[in-house]
Amino acid sequence: MGIFDFLKNKPKLTDTTSDQPHLPNKVNHKTHLDNIQKEIFLHLKPLGFKKKGRTFNRQTEDGIYQVINIQSGKYEFGDNYVIPGFKENFYGKFTVNLGIMVKEIYELSANKPKDIYQDYDCQIRERLPHLTIKQDHWWIIKGDDSITTKEIIDGLNSHGLGWLDQFETRDKICKNLETYKGTLGRVKLDVAIIELYRDRIKGEKLFQDYYDNIDIKRTHKKYVKELANRLGVNLTTIEEA
Predict the structure, then answer these.
(1) C-alpha dihedral, 132 to 36 to 65 to 173, nearest 10°
(2) Number of independent structural domains in the chain
(3) Which of 50 and 146 is assigned the larger pLDDT?
(4) How does pLDDT run across 181-230, given as a tens digit for each residue?
């Protein structure tokens, strides 16, 4: 990511192949995942995280929430669903998502406050294995929960919590987003929106700079203009210049 050093040696994963048999019993899946989740929460609770379902939240600044989510694979119907290398069946597996939820950006879509924010509510998102082994990975839900749980907790300690803390305040978000190359489609726009609430003049300048660098043919340019109008930002367009 350009901000933290990655592990020099990749950790040995519990499941090394994608064709190992899944547990056929849905109840077994839930029981094993509940055990893993419980141990992860025991580790996160003293750090200030609260839990609902399979998601953990910690507020680090007013309106800034760190999110950790355990995502289990859905059961997919049909014999032709799996296309190796393109579309996989993740039933019987799970992964760990990380995210940062910024209140002022979240509320732009008329979203209401929640007791617990999910990773899809976040403006900044990443997956734990993308940080630890630099690739996507889904753990197989199986009998030995302790090994899998240790891998995840070790990954959170070595990479995940540090990644979250890059964005624990608005100051850090505005500073570090420019160097972050994760799943962000509009880094500079998000920074401009945050700055509008902190330094109006600076935020408006960033908004204008972002707008000016969008290809005039892209529909996104129209969206940004409409968003600026909603926020009371007077953009200078090419026609007006």
Answers:
(1) 0
(2) 2
(3) 50
(4) 554 557 889 999 999 999 999 999 999 999 998 887 778 999 999 999 99
Domain that holds residue 192: 185-230
- 164 and 76: one domain? yes
Q: Are 177 and 191 spatial neighbours (Cβ–Cβ below 8 Å)?
A: yes
Same domain, 162 and 222: no
160 and 197 housed in the same domain: no
Characterize the bridge pairing of strands 93-102 and 124-127. Answer: antiparallel
In a domain, 179, yes or no: no
Return the closest-CA partner of residue 65 out of 108, 109, 104. Answer: 104
Shared-domain flag, residues 131 and 216: no
Does some domain include residue 120? yes
Confidence band of 5 (pLDDT split at 50, 70, 90): very low
Q: Mean pLDDT over residues 111-119, rounded?
A: 92
Q: How far apart are CA 72 and CA 90, in angstroms?
A: 8
Return the sign of the alpha-carbon dihedral for residues 213, 217, 218, 224: positive
**pTM of the entire structure?**
0.79
